[in-house]
Write a structure and sequence with these properties.
Two copies of one chain form a homodimer. The first copy, chain A, is built from 14 helices and ten strands. By secondary structure, the first copy, chain A, is of the alpha/beta class. In chain A, helix 12 crosses helix 14. The termini of chain A are far apart. In chain A, 58% of the residues are buried. The model of chain A has no long low-confidence stretch (mean pLDDT 96). Chains A and B meet through helix 12 and helix 14 of A and helix 12 and helix 14 of B. Chains A, B: Belongs to the serine/threonine dehydratase family. Chains A, B: It comes from Yoonia tamlensis.
Chain lengths: 320, 320
Amino acid sequence: MNIEMIRAAATRIDGHARRTPLLSSPFLDEIAGRQVFVKAECLQHTGSFKFRGAWSAISMLSADQIKAGVIAFSSGNHAQGIALAAQKHGAPAVIVMPVNAPAIKIANTRAYGAEVVLYDRATEDRDAIGARLAAERGLTLIKPFDEPLVVAGQGTCGLEIAQELGNRDAEVAVCCGGGGLTSGVAIALAADAPKMRVRPVEPAGFDDVTRSLAGGQIMRNAQLDGSLCDAIITPQPGDLTFPIMQNLCGAGIAVTDDECLRAMGLAFARLKIVIEPGGAAALAAALFHPDAFEGDTVVAIATGGNVDPAVFARALDTLA
Amino acid sequence: MNIEMIRAAATRIDGHARRTPLLSSPFLDEIAGRQVFVKAECLQHTGSFKFRGAWSAISMLSADQIKAGVIAFSSGNHAQGIALAAQKHGAPAVIVMPVNAPAIKIANTRAYGAEVVLYDRATEDRDAIGARLAAERGLTLIKPFDEPLVVAGQGTCGLEIAQELGNRDAEVAVCCGGGGLTSGVAIALAADAPKMRVRPVEPAGFDDVTRSLAGGQIMRNAQLDGSLCDAIITPQPGDLTFPIMQNLCGAGIAVTDDECLRAMGLAFARLKIVIEPGGAAALAAALFHPDAFEGDTVVAIATGGNVDPAVFARALDTLA
């Protein structure tokens, strides 16, 4: 991975992915005790940054690969990003999703024209299902984070932050699953805004990246269910992404589901954006863990916004 | 009023107001039966386009006027726009608000540093209260729409639409109260994208602009209470704004509160933005009154997003 791959991805996604706004509110600054900027990736096509990586990867496929189609595993955001990017390239898409993925994400993935194959995480082998389908149909697998073209696409978000804020002292909090966005943004900022430092943010109890960075080796999560932050729950950091995070990122930060719901409520009230629990983790860290950061500026990437109304109602309740 | 005043306002607000994004979703296009773009003014500072006009007007005051301070009448969005723009100019601000304005708008106006004076619309004379305070303290009154510098500021939203979409055939639906945004955008588009036509959108039962345009003279609303769309309920079109709308706008469109709630729910689910009922009127027209429009593209300006959580919960219920 290198910065030239990210710049090339930026050229490919130009005019296709949205350049998302950087929002702020004096009310949030007051809570955090410092200047907080929110990169609103929830306003990206399909509602999350994943469309960047999906477009980056699919736009590099050959005509034969496009014709045969693509396959992806995802609990929802990568699924939608791949589905829409594939649809716009005229490529068939098969998405293998856990049966307990949020209903809205399954419905949206189908609505973007993908064939959704559901599996039970407890009893079925996702990789075996995917390998069989890929072999039968000649599908190209697009991995959600351990894929250089995907990391390059996610890194374009970092280029935009550097362009908008310049090279200033700041910590950049990133909602972190497998580390695709985190490592891509870290490479982009190291090149274009080296005074900025990336901080991975994870759900408490699912902080594999935080523990891996602290321990100097890849560690796994003990469980994969039981958090509202489905979007950023992964078994372990990627083989591609972990060394990048080791080189370039500061320590990880863990936040609770309750903190994510409160951050969603404040984003509703103060920024007028809709974010899902996993997409609110970085903002939750900025607002409710001020001692975890240094300096007077934190940029929080709000990674996604696909949220069931019932969950959002719980976030509204935190404002009462 | 002329286009040069709007271009001058654009220069003054540059770097202070946000350039808001133009959003879209294939799901919304499908409902509307055409391409729908949403200009997300809810992402503007203070949560509505009103900050544009407030900054445009306050930035033209003399040092003595700034020192003495400003006064405004508003049910909430102009109030917040004036309060924040005044605060950033170091000007004291007094805002006269109806006692039944949404609680969140009153609280926000105070939080932006303004002194809020509440009055009862049924029993007290707003203008008398304002005139007394202005005389006592030497305050400059900044009217919400019938003020050229305010109209010029709101018109900058139209310049941005023209810059982003170019001069293409489109109808531009605008949530319309007194007509400040509607007339400002109409002037901007007449100059920079003359193939676009502005369509005022109002709440059913409070459609003074629609009836005035149809009748060729200013008509009043029979009542001022009883709609969720508090943000765009005004007694009648402005003396400044009405002739501009007569010259440049197509017919008005009226939408129901229920349609606005449904549009809010769809903006939540599909665009990940928070809009209030009055700010959703234009999108409601685009989605639920397709026969009211011509051509294959509608731009709906989502004017504001300050909404009480209980009202937003009703919008979420429409998605069930």
